[in-house]
Each structure stands twice: as structure tokens, then as C-alpha cells.
Amino acid sequence: MMITFRRQVLTQSVSLLSLIGALPAVLSACATNPPTSDISALRDRWMEDWMSARTLVGPLHMARFADPMYVVLDPIGWRPGQSEVDPLPVVEVPRGFVTDLASIPRVFWSLLRPDGAYTYPAIIHDYMYWTQVHERQVADDVFLAGMRDMNIDESTCKAIHFAVRQFGQSAWNNNRQLKRSGERRILKRLPSDPTVRWDQWRLMSDVFV
Fold this sequence. Notes:
By secondary structure, the chain is mainly alpha-helical. It has one domain (21-204). The chain contains 8 helices and 6 strands; from the N terminus they run E-H-H-E-E-E-E-E-H-H-H-H-H-H. It has helices at 23-30, 36-51, 106-111, 116-131, 136-149, 154-167, 169-180, 198-201; strands at 3-6, 62-64, 70-72, 76-79, 91-93, 98-99.
């Protein structure tokens, strides 16, 4: 059964990490260009901390390859509130979607504590960046709406949204190139060996939908 959350109809209680410093300082930090390995390590630590506390996750379930690539174990979704004048699209992420969450800016992992609720909009955003059915602006706006649904502080939401608008194009372009080269990201079969890396598994043609 797909787990779907919608705007203004959120029943899951989430806690927040206070915004560190004023918004201008956060936006200034977004403009820095740390090494890709540093961002990847920060993201992986965030995900590892969250996944080690599975009792707090609720309906969102994910698994990890030996390398920092994650797979959605149950379908999730997002839909706008019915009161929206110009509604954003309904988004459905299928079971087996593999993500590295590369579309999510560094400030997201820095400002928010590891929590399954926060991971929802991040996965939705990364899925939209992968499929590219909608324009990038739409994906970023869905991400913003999803963070607001999770009752994340508005200043934090705006800082993170600013970051994806300013610096998300490279992740979008990289996904486009990967798809053109034949890479697939939706699995029908998962490895039973926890030491298997995504770089190995993706070479097996019979594991994809």
C-alpha cells in the first residue's frame, strides 16, 4: 500500500532542529563549494544515523547498498491540498527506486537532524530529478511544499529551497546524462548479500523493472 502525505493533512508529529544562525548566513553558506566527497560523507552520515533508529521512521522504509546508495522498500507519494489554486502534481515513488539523494543541497543535511519524516520530501525530490517528467522548477516547488508539510521552520525551508534553485542544475544534468547512457534506477529484485555495491548490482540486467 502506498504511503501518501498531503499538504495541510499531516498526522505524523515531527521535531525540528533550530535554524543555525540567521537566514542570510545560511544563504551565504550555500554559495560555498565544498569537495563532493565531503558532501557525500555528510549525506551518508545523516542517512546512517536515521536508519539506525528505525523505530522512529514510521512507514518509510529504505535499505542501503554497501556503497552510499539507497533503495525505497515501499512505495511512497505526495499530493497537493485540494485548496491549491494552481496545484502541484501528484508524485508517486515506486518500490525499488534507487537514490543517492544527490539532488538535495548540503544545507538540508546540515540543518535538519536525521529523521524519517524529513527524508520523505528529499526522496520525492530526488525521484522527480531522476524521472524529469516535470520541469526542475516544479520538482523544487514540490520539495518546498513537502518540507512545509513536515512543519519545518519556514526560514529553513526557504534556505534549502534557495539552495536547490541555485545549485540543483548540475544534479539535474547529471541524471539526464546517466539516463542517456542507459542507467536505470527502479529495481524489481534486491540483493540478499549486504556487501553488494550498487556499482555491481546495476550491471545485472535482470534486476530492473
